[in-house]
Amino acid sequence: MSKESTKKTAPTIIITGTPGVGKSTHAQLLAQESPAPLKHINVGDLVKEKNLYESYDEEWQSYEVDEDKLLDELEPIAAAGGVILDWHTCEIFPERWADLVVVLRCNHTKLWERLESRGYPLKKIQENNEAEIMEVVLEEARSSYAQEIVVELQSEGTEDLEANVARIVEWVKAWQRDQASANDSG
User: Which residue positions form the known binding site for ATP?
Assistant: First the structure.
């Protein structure tokens, strides 16, 4: 374990998944229930608020993110810990930031309904649904981070939400114990 990670008082958790799987809802509830103080950052909102984009794509109704600006903005926050990064992609975040990467998954029929209720254009719903079926975000996480920190969780309803957050809270408690023992022995 690096010295950098032992200085953190709270972990950096990435919650990722296809749009509509429940990332923000999970992150908000986790921020409330975590035994360690965690700040929820909706990366998509941050991109808009801080103008961390190059342009807006009308057809896809999404921003072309300036990854360098985004990473510069997040570096001090993520490196310090105590943050939940909530975004539909994770591979741009440096491996050193992540203590846990949670990939939320959802049945594609349920996902279609969620995206439709958001008013997404059909083309965007189709692309996101295909990405979910093909496990694009899960594969991205698995290829970007150590296997032991990537966790795949189902997110199809309130029961899943509550169980997932409880599971992550237990992980945070274990992380805190590990940090305390590492600091005691260091």
Answer: 20, 22-25, 118
